Known about the structure:
Blueprint: H1 15-21, H2 24-27, H3 31-47, H4 53-71, H5 84-96, H6 109-145, E1 150-155, E2 158-164, H7 165-190, E3 192-193, H8 209-215, E4 220-221, H9 225-230, H10 233-260, E5 267-268, H11 287-310, H12 324-348, E6 350-351, H13 353-359, H14 367-376, H15 381-398, H16 407-414, H17 419-425, H18 428-434, H19 443-457
Parallel strand pairs: 3-4
Antiparallel strand pairs: 1-2, 5-6
Arginine is lined by residues 23, 83, 109-110, 113, 317, 319, 321-322.
Amino acid sequence: MKFLWSGRFSKELYDIAKKFTFSIGIDKNLAEFDVSGSIAHVEMLVHQRIISRKDGSRIIKGLKKIQDEIKENKFVFKPNDEDIHTAVERRLFELIGPVAGNLHTARSRNDQIVLDEKLYLKKIIPELESVIVFLQKTLVKKAEEYFDVILPELTHFQPAQPVLFSHHLLAYVCMLERDKTRLRDTLARLNIAPLGACACTGTSFNINPGYIARQFGFDDVFTNSVDVVSDRDFILETISNLGILMIHLSRMAEELIFWHSSLLGFVDLPDEFCTGSSIMPQKKNPDVLELIRGKTAVLIGNIAGIFALMKGLPLSYNRDMQEDKRFLFESCEISHLSTLIVAKVIEKMKININKMAQACNYGYIEATDIAEFLVRKGIPFRQSHHMVAELVKIAIEKNISLKELDEITIERITKVKDTVSFIKNITPSKSVSLKKSYGGTSPKFVKKEIERWKNILK
Ligand code: ARG
């Protein structure tokens, strides 16, 4: 069986070479885009009078039939289909005969593959954006529902200061907003139509790349044919952006896993996203979230993979680039599913307010509030920090809370009379209310933030 490029060859491709070079398995994801790209190309060829209207109509009819076959999952791939482009052209020949030979006028697979990949991302990136928005909305809803709940915020994985649980959840929303805008930026940058670059130099035919650009809503047309067949920046960017998204999801997953541990019990993760142990009957393990962490490693691997693929590649097209798709498709699929899973877990998890409140009794998390109180009473911060540290030291030695310290000790160390009553009366909820600074965890500010996010995300 001959290939469409095999005219100058006297020997057939070795089987192992065939197996090695064929990309049809992975190209299947691009089938719908490849055909719609071809339809637009033929329309342009007719419009520019490069092929006749009659031939054009027959080719388009054939391509539409192929489009239906793909949609209905009836398209049959054959053993000698090298990639998606040749599979479609082969089928077109079967359907309409030699007139199919006009399809590839003024086009190369080198510009065609870039169009396919860009059309894929023009569909996939908005879909990713919408699952990110779904996760953001889920978080904002939870933040609203558990607005007053207080959590010991950690630094260095140690109790630091009380924070509104809602404020903590909104931190995730901020992270995701950056992920979303990064993807949007990439989409805006890749929205340049590549068809018409042909193999690498353009063509002698009077083509109209703007015609195809308009069909697919590209913002503009490429200006350099060498660049456009060589460029995979948009794939490097997309995978990098998705890597950052997955890093964020893995951090969220890690916190949820920690909160779900029966040692803490801040949350109870939904049964539908946990699994049991084959030996320990009591277990409810957060396997799905563990796999969010695990699959983040795959994304990091894909970033390394795509960067390694492109490093040092000379211009213009090189076959190495065919390998870009495995990294791209896998990264898009993992990110989409992971975002959706985290959203569903958060939507369905139960919050244990009491356990979070109890946890605020550990680690002397009101210490900074006491130091700041002393500053308001005229003591320089460095000094007040030392005073409170001394109180904490005594409390640790005696294995008691700061509230349980005796008045004489407090007064001896701070020499500020009202300190005793401040210490006795400070609570986690008073503590968060004191954090009135912009962007802080005061209920007043967080309430406004919830409203602001609701507006942004509606
Ligand atoms: N399948 C190739 C790719 O993914 C495109 C085909 C270009 N092939 C070629 N021999 N010029 O990059």
